[in-house]
Amino acid sequence: TWTTHNVVDEQVALIKAQVGDKRAICGLSGGVDSAVAAALVARAIGDQLTCVYVDHGLMRKGETEQVEKDFVAATGVKLKVVDAEERFLNALKGVSDPEEKRKIIGREFIRVFEQAQAEIIADEGPAVEFLVQGTLYPDVVESGGGTGTANIKSHHNVGGLPEDLEFQLVEPLRQLFKDEVRMVGQELGLPEEIVQRQPFPGPGLGIRIVGEVTKERLDLLREADAIAREELTAAGLDREIWQCPVVLLADVRSVGVQGDGRTYGHPIVLRPVSSEDAMTADWSRLPYEVLARISTRITNEVRDVNRVVLDVTSKPPGTIEWE
Ligand code: XMP
């Protein structure tokens, strides 16, 4: 019978057999799949595994720390963190077009990741032969079931693969669905915030700022997003909504009034959606009190934001993200 306990034991044995005394690398994105895959491989081969986390500066508040501190504490894994915020911000300077942003972020990500890989190989020698991927069963089906060297959803997954992949793949989640992956993560003792995390796009907050991406705007959006997440969690709505992008309309200003002064600030958009698989979605009918609390707090606590608006568009015609 299927138990998470059996899955862990079985996968640990398989990984040991596959990797032997060689070494492996795993990219962490902050998401569930890569975290659980890495934790399984760490359980099997310990410090023969090195994880890489590229901090592109586009994560939400607290997420990088979660990987650096909580994930490492839970798994004991060897982690290389690359602080690439400046590099990404420089590359994104002056860019407002959504596709252009995605391309730049994807390209920089692969460059930084490849460089980190090269450094690890230089440190650890040619025994580095394996790359761990958090490929799930639905990804396998979608890509036609191939195995070996994958290029699964590289368009969509910025935690993506280098083009000239020469590693053998370790994919311990290939038979699992998302909810099973979460159970395995729990069994492995991963932090709740990682195991239960809702979907978050690889390009991060870079595609949630309509307009140019700057450090100042990112900081502002991080504050607004943290407030929305905090209130949704406090209201017990995390399981009910699929995800809730929080978007900064950096190129839009509107007039407001605060205290006895006129303001000319930016709107924040809340985009709570309900969905089964992100292919289609409906806007979530959130309780008015929760919306009111989020709105009051964001306009009070976040500098330069004087308006909060709600996106009531389904998908289609809207996508979940704004860019
Ligand atoms: P859209 O906006 O296309 O989003 O309705 C569908 C789902 O995919 C997520 N998303 C991404 N995930 N890299 C990712 O890993 C990306 O570039 C990306 N773009 C969108 C989005 O958050 C939603 O869950």
Q: Share of helix among residues?
A: 40-55%
The CATH architecture designation of the largest domain is: 3-Layer(aba) Sandwich
* Sheet having the most strands: 5 strands, parallel
Q: If you average the pLDDT, what whole number results?
A: 93
Question: What bound compounds does this protein have?
Answer: xanthosine-5'-monophosphate
Report the structural category. alpha/beta
Continuous helix count: 10
Shape: globular
What's the name of the CATH homologous superfamily of the largest domain?
HUPs
State the name of the first-level CATH class of the largest domain.
Alpha Beta
Q: End-to-end span in angstroms?
A: 44 Å
Based on CA atoms alone, the radius of gyration comes out at: 21 Å
Catalytic activity: XMP + L-glutamine + ATP + H2O = GMP + L-glutamate + AMP + diphosphate + 2 H(+)
EC number: 6.3.5.2
Function: Catalyzes the synthesis of GMP from XMP.
Binding site for ATP: 29-35
